[in-house]
Amino acid sequence: SGSVAIEIKPKDLTVTAVNSTKYVGQLNPIFTVTYEGFAYGDNSSNLEGNLAFLTEADKYSCAGEYEVEPFGLYSTNYDITFVVAKLTILGVSIDASASSTPVPAGQPATLTASVTPAVSGVSVTFLITSVGYSESITVDTDDSGIASTTTGNLELGVYQVKATAGSGCATSIAYIPVYDDSGSFVTGGGWIMSPAGALTADPTVVGKANFGFVSKYKKGSNQVDGNTEFQFHAGGINFKSTFHEAGSLVISGKKATYRGSGTVNGQSGYKFTLVALDGHWNGGPGPDQFRIKITDGTGGVIYDNGLNAAENSDASTALGGGSIVIHEVKSNAKAKSLEVEVLAGDVADNLLKAYPNPFAERVFFDMQFVNDGHAVLEIFDMRGAKLSTLFDKSVEAGMIYRLEYAPTDVVPGILIYRLVKDGEVTNGRLIYQKQR
């Protein structure tokens, strides 16, 4: 009789990864598999090796579909086939606008970003930058889809906050004003040549645009007082502020920034950010520069002569006429330029008006000139000691310069004001009657 050779082949076994989903910024889920083909009574414990998964997806991956390949199991009893699955990463949007709350200098800022849908475990990186400063903090969202953290103590300035989910898959930018309400303030008035690209509705429109503004803190408060106007006739924009945001005025060196709300052509619902650079601050050579960014209720840009540069950058336009002045309160008196506006028509004579006179708390000056030139307005006591230089700038014909003087620790009595315009001197008397 002959012998029969019996060959026992391994049984086919299919290991199939299970499809799964997650959101951008979340860790990968725990991957699982199903088995098909076990002999009676066998299960995964009868296999050798360790089940593992290979995928290019991680918490930094953006929305899309990614393969998940199982591997790592083997057996002499089974011929194993591995079947890949799909990991679907769902997109999120992110909003960092809640990170824009102003804070006093020397204090930390609270950073907050919300993701939509509101899911937990989304990794959010906050990058905080300003001139000479950079800090990065990464936190996960909570069950409400909110990521929140705090910075270190911040010095005076405007800081950009960039909140990112994944590797740039969703990004939102906000700006934190870090302010000092000790008394410095900014005024400006004049015109710029609006550049191509500034008007979103028609980037080809260029032309002369007039502006006038004053922004200062109310005494003992972080409330920002003042007004802002901007007219770009060729572009059909007439903007007037209705509100300056509390704590938003930041003055650092030659640069001032603030923001608020206003109307465009009489219609409300617009926001603005203003950047002003005093090119002659601390003896600088100039020029003065101006930028205004106006957005609608959805955040869409209506006008920006900074051409979409970061709001804490120096991107701006040099003045064609007028001036910007950063007033630093250092002496025993305060000089404040309240308003500068362009007037229509010709000026017949140089004008200088002081009112009210006598005065108890503050006095106002209006100056207007026939020709361009340079003007200096100073205040002296009766002994000839200078109390304050209210104005020392180039002036433009046909503009009215309105200034305010509020004495501090000045003895009541007669004060002398002197205006020097291109060598021509005008003197006058003030009667200071301080209230008891």
What would you note in describing this structure?
The chain contains no helices and 34 strands. The protein has 436 residues and is mainly β. The protein has 4 domains: 80 residues, Immunoglobulin-like, CATH 2.60.40; 86 residues, Sandwich (Immunoglobulin-like), CATH 2.60.40; 142 residues; 102 residues, Sandwich (Immunoglobulin-like). The strands form 7 sheets. Strands 16, 17, 18, 19, 20, 21, 22, 23, 24, 25 and 26 form an 11-stranded antiparallel β-sheet that branches. A hairpin with a 2-residue loop joins strand 20 and strand 21. About 4% of the residues have low confidence.
**What fraction, in percent, of the residue positions are helical?**
under 10%
Question: What is the averaged pLDDT score?
Answer: 88
Inertia-based shape = elongated
Number of strands: 34
Name the poorly predicted regions.
Answer: 331-347
Q: How many helices does DSSP assign?
A: 0
Biggest sheet, in brief?
A: 11 strands, antiparallel
Count structural domains: 4
Distance between the termini: 136 Å
Q: Using the CA coordinates, give the radius of gyration.
A: 33 Å
Global structural class: mainly beta
Strand content: over 45%
Structure keywords:
436 residues; mainly beta; Immunoglobulin-like; 4 domains; eleven-stranded antiparallel sheet; five-stranded mixed sheet; 0% helix
